[in-house]
Amino acid sequence: MRWAERRRQPATVGRNGKVSAKAIFDIYRYARYHAFIANTDNRADMKQILTHSAQLGQILAARRRASKLSQRALAAKLAISQNRLSEIETNPGNLAVERLLELANLLGLELVIQDRPPTQRSSKTEW
């Protein structure tokens, strides 16, 4: 095979004509990401119950990616640095309520605080 013909092959195909494991994994991640985006695109259906602060960072980061915003672009809208936004996404425990509401508004989210549904207790009491 001449050099020009090899050059036209996709980068995922090695010289021996086989696809690398990394390429397969990258394609798999790409497909999973697009499936995630397709499922989260129905914004009215999204409802998350938070039990700890790390979940908040994951939700904010996922929504930012689903909105096709980079950290830098969202940080610019918030008038903060990209590093600070990265810290917020990885450790949102110190996030002020005002900043959280601003972030939620920019990402098309709303915060709802409500009573927990009553837990169903068994008829037999265990001691």
Can you walk me through this structure?
This protein has helices spanning 3-8, 21-40, 53-66, 71-78, 82-90, 97-106. The chain is 53% helix and 0% strand. The chain has a domain at 48-112: 434 Repressor (Amino-terminal Domain) (Orthogonal Bundle). The termini are far apart. Helix 4 (71-78) crosses helix 5 (82-90). The chain is mostly helical and 127 residues long. Residues 1-9 have low confidence and may be disordered. It contains six helices and no strands.
Query: Outline, from the CA principal axes?
Result: extended
Measured distance between first and last alpha carbons: 78 Å
Proportion of beta-strand residues:
under 5%
Q: What is the CATH topology classification name of one domain?
A: 434 Repressor (Amino-terminal Domain)
The CATH C-level name of one domain is Mainly Alpha
Topology (elements, then pairings):
Layout: H1 3-8, H2 21-40, H3 53-66, H4 71-78, H5 82-90, H6 97-106
Offer a few descriptive terms.
6 helices, 434 Repressor (Amino-terminal Domain), 127 residues, 0% strand, mainly alpha
Give a quick rundown of the structure.
Helix content is 53%, strand content 0%. By secondary structure, it is mostly helical.
